[in-house]
Amino acid sequence: MSEKWIVGVDLGGTTTKLAFINNDGEIVHKWEIPTDNTNEGQNITVNIAKAIEEKLAEHGQIKDNLIGIGMGAPGPVNYDKGIILNVVNLGWPDNYPLKASLEAATSLPAAIENDANCAALGEMWMGAGDGAKDLVCVTLGTGVGGGVITGGKVVQGINGAAGEIGHITVIPFGGATCNCGKTGCLETVASATGIVRLARIELAKELKGELSEKLAENGSITAKDVFDAARNSDVLAQSVLDEITFHLGFVLASIANTLNPEKIVLGGGVSKAGDILLNPVKNNFVKFAFSAVRDSTELALATLGNDAGVLGAAWLIKNKLNQ
Q1: What is the average pLDDT across 138-153?
Q2: Distance between alpha carbon 42 and the CA centroid of its chain, in Å?
Q3: According to the CATH classification, is domain 5-122+307-320 in 3.30.420.40?
């Protein structure tokens, strides 16, 4: 093989995404394996190592052709020490030495980072960031994650917990309880689960319209159902969308007023709603952004989808080894 590959890993609670990526950021091959969080997560890095060996054999390649391995993990990460401070659903104890475990299992140089930060790095390198070195990436999925990049480097904070945009308080009194233990977090209104929660509150007041029909038909509703109904001018769905986009626009303007990034990128499953989400967020952003920020910060939808995490993880090791 003439070119060297990097292994990018996006670790999730149920699925682990892996990819072989070249130095130009092109994905050579990608695949997924189940995440085994039994036995306090001791099988996770071992299974990743086995999966890499198997794929190398399938491609007729050897490990010497791999530069290193980068991983995005769901939790606050101390990049310098290579530890993940705490994580809810992987079984690891607090302050788990993830980098050392990954290097021991794979015999490759490793770098680890928070998964939302990796998504931000991926979008900066190969996606909607388009090379911007001052970038904020917000991932709207089951929860709300965030990654902040200034001067091409992730802002990690003193304890690796910077960029927790989803836990900015938007409803200071009487807000819903968040998984983090606080109440009124952005995550409680702008995540997929938060959107469904808001819709169900409205449906409890008045059962009529397209969303009501969806609920009666399926016994449940999704965030996608809310956006689809809003596109069809469903009044209830539109009121939910108004609340979501108000809080998002307000928070993003506050972040931009502090950082003045070149771009703010919205990613994650919720962002697949497209312009029906982005346009009202932009409208609210304009209302609350300082004029100089408003004129220089662009809001855009992420372009890499599920590949952002593995690409950002690969960028970690590429940057660390100065390839």
Answers
A1: 91
A2: 24
A3: yes
